[in-house]
Amino acid sequence: MSDIGARASSDGVRVSAQVFVKSTRGRPAGRALQTTTRRINLIPYIFVTPAVLCLVAFGVLPIAVAAVVSLTNLDISGLAHYGNIHFIGLENYRTLFRDPVFWESLRNTALFVVIGVPSILVSSLAVAIALNRSQSRFFRALRVFYFFPAITAIVAIALIWGYLYNTQFGLFNYLLSLVGASPVQWLSDPLIAKFSVALVAIWRATGLDIVIFLAALQAIPREYYEAASIDGAGEWRKIFDITVPLLKFAIFFVTVTTLINWMQFFDEPYVLTQGGPVHATTSVSLYIFQQGFSFNQFGFASAASIVLFAIIALVTTAQLRVRMRNEERNA
């Protein structure tokens, strides 16, 4: 009995010793595992940090500075000496909303958006669907051809289109003269100039959206179209029942980005008409540029930029909410 008890006690000591060793060995391993997990969790933030810093430096910070400057009378004298800068509260905003040129620029911007956004969306989607139907070298060359306007300098574009729109020697009026029509004041008539400037912007912006739609189209499995062909669906039925529904996110993305770009419409009216004739093509962005860099009213221009930022933020937020509601309904 004594031998059995001694063996049992020795076995118990061994078991307890093993448990103690395992527990002591597990502690450093657990700490190492926690440290490794923390490092893994920090890796995404390390990659995101440069982009966030750039966004804060070139996006958030300028908006904050513009909001502060909009409450002052900063002009060219204020840049010379900070003592000439005075806080005037909301006076810049009151003056802005009483300026008829600002309201006209706002109406012009709204007209450009109404003309440009649907035109770009429909034309780029149609061209992308047409180009996606074939993989031949000719169609690949057409993809590059359509993308050229997006990478061409705006100065070169303005020079070419300026000659095309020329009243006396332009190509468009020459073609009209061949059929006996009178010349058109493409950039001199207040109403026609709006559509002339919008046409150049539509032609220039379509190429990038075509590339986006092409990338989305190539991600659609071919099996869907093959199954539709077996069921007897025609080409138009495939487009409206397969292509368009599967391109909802791409269409939403192009709509949002195009709308934001056209609400900041600047390049074409600046290089083609300088906002004329008689402010007929002056957009809000061009109005801000003129007030800030032509008249040196930086506080007033900052107030206008804050108003434009608020409008863009409201429109974009409304689009995102509509998108989220539609997803919740479909879920």
What does this structure look like?
The chain is mostly helical and 331 residues long. The chain has 14 helices and no strands. It has helices spanning 2-69, 76-80, 91-97, 100-132, 137-151, 154-164, 171-178, 190-218, 222-230, 235-246, 248-263, 267-272, 284-294, 298-330. Helix 1 packs across helix 14 (298-330), helix 3 crosses helix 14 (298-330) and helix 4 packs parallel to helix 8. The longest helix has 68 residues, at 2-69. The protein is globular. Mean pLDDT is 86; it is low at 1-27.
- Secondary-structure element pattern, one letter each: HHHHHHHHHHHHHH
Strand content: under 5%
Radius of gyration: 32 Å
- As a percent range, the share of helical residues equals over 70%
Terminal CA distance reads 74 Å
- Largest sheet, if any? none
List keywords for this structure.
mainly alpha; 14 helices; 79% helix; globular
Entry summary:
The chain is mostly helical and 331 residues long. It has 14 helices and no strands.
